[in-house]
Hints:
The complex is a heterodimer of chains A (308) and B (298).
Chain A (H helix, E strand, L loop, with lengths): L1 H19 L8 H26 L7 H19 L3 H23 L4 H21 L1 H4 L5 E2 L8 H24 L1 H11 L1 H6 L4 H27 L1 E2 L1 H4 L2 H14 L6 H15 L6 H16 L3 H6 L1 H4 L2
Antiparallel strand pairs in A: 1-2
Helix pairs in contact in A: 1-7, 2-7, 2-10, 2-12, 2-13, 3-4, 3-5, 3-10, 4-10, 7-10, 8-10, 12-13
Chain B lengths: L1 H37 L6 H17 L5 H29 L8 H24 L13 E4 L2 E4 H23 L1 H11 L1 H6 L4 H26 L7 H15 L4 H21 L7 H13 L9
Antiparallel strand pairs in B: 1-2
Helix pairs in contact in B: 1-5, 1-8, 1-9, 1-10, 2-3, 2-4, 2-8, 2-9, 3-4, 3-8, 5-6, 5-8, 6-8, 9-10
Amino acid sequence: MRLSSTIRILLVGLVVVALASFLPFAVSGYVLGLLTIAYYFGVFAMAWDLLFGFAGEVNFGPTFLIGTGAYTAGILDNLYQPPIWLCVVAGTLAAVAGGVILALPALRVRGPYFGLTTLVAVLMLQNYVVVDASLTGGEIGLTVPDVITISDAKNYELALWFMAFSAAILFSLSRSPVGLILQASGQDAVQAGALGFNVTKHKLFAFIVSALFSGLAGALMVFYLGSASVGTFIDITVGVQIIIAAVLGGRRTILGGVLGAVFIIAMAEALRPIGDLANFVVFTMALVVVLLFPSGFFGLLTRTKEGG
Amino acid sequence: MGTCRVSVVFWQILVDGFAVSSLYALGAMGFALIFGVSGVLNLSHGALMVVAVVAAWAAGNDLHDDPYTGALIGIGAGFVATMITYFVIVGPLQRTQKIREEEKEIFILTGTLLWGIMIQEFIAYLYTNNAKTVAPIVNGVMSIVGVRTPKNELFTAIVCWLVIGGLWLLVNRTRAGKAVLAASMNPRGVTLLGIELSRIYIAIWAIYGLLVGVAGVLLGMFLGVSSYSVGPLTASAFSIVVLGGLGSVSGALIAAYVVGYLETITAYLISPAYRTIPALLLLIVVMYLRPRGFLGRR
């Protein structure tokens, strides 16, 4: 029953992605650019949901992992210009190392304490980037000499299929026995341990998987944008936007993150005419959803199937 | 001559650090009180303080009020914003049936975080991101142990300590205060004694609102803020409270002085650019070695 519903959702997702892959024939390069960013954001949000929704870790610092991946890839490319894939791999590995570092306090402290640790991790990374300006470009930002491609359509397809691939893996993982054990450890670590599950091992695994996708997405986004800056990859506001995307889409649904990310980017664009007030309106809508529909968009769609 | 310069810097750090630390202590006090009694971590804390500053600043700038009226308007604005936070966001989330009990903490964190950012965006929209400094009530400069100090700095420290002292008396010496203290130790026990928990929550949020207002206005007169200060202000209150031990008010006091002096020493002896880094490092070390903070319970 559970397996069949998982496969059904994945098939529906595949159809949606296949349809979306025809968009370059229908819409302008500008819209494709917006969607490209939204898809990378979707991966950030899904990776965050794995930690928050399933492992129960209040991570205020998704940008610590993303920024580590993005800046490692960007700096490497800037210094030595190796093949781009090598930079992306290096960025991903650095983010995974970051994930392990972040996991260490998580295994010791709980809830708000861990939340603060992640916040501090982001502030430290931000301080480092600003202070070590000769390497990182500081507050101005880092320009990388290479990009993957300058074609809007190709960038769009890459982001779309990367997002689909990440979604399939993260979603299957969340529905697998491992996902159930993670959920159990998140809700009652002591009881999960008493049932014989290795809570430490599973949480560490969740951190590594989350870091892997965050870092990979961050590194790919650097080579799409051609630059990296604190404002796009590390700032706490970016982290909050990722959290909003995941919560709007529906926590503990993984796929909801993509809906939330597309919604946020689309709203910000639709509200552009009202200028500086646009962000305010988006945040207000997010707050209303949190207060009135805590299970989010995806939660409303699949309420009957969740059963729990 | 060398020793003379060293001693001047030493006294300067001692005097400046004291004023900054007192302000940090007052700012973190309300945050610690709310957490200690109702288990709520209010991530819009910094935004509420900025509301108080901006209101006081706008009263002086746009309405040309004198500093006293401006300060009162600032305190009032901080109070109103805090009560909105409770009645619109925290209270409904605490009572809702739609969210499972163990997940409410996460929702309150997310909700207050969003609320804080909404305030930040709105202030930036109304008054831009520029830094705002409130005209101080006390002007002029005086000399303390050979250090030229603005009188405003001394005024800040005195008001902070008066308010902290008043809070201490209120909690430890009055009947209502004792009920609050009891609620923080055992909420169910207090309910059984016939005291309504919801009234205690409203009372502590009202106290918190006043503390936020006073701390905000003093901050505006002393250092000034911009809408960018929202995040760092929340983070500094949060770190002070965690360092001192969540729920421990006296722990928060000690931690405020540790953080205030660490920052001042760094700013004077190394560089103002590195101001916040040692305190963050200390926080990480304490969380690894002693997660419950200096004076935390458990």
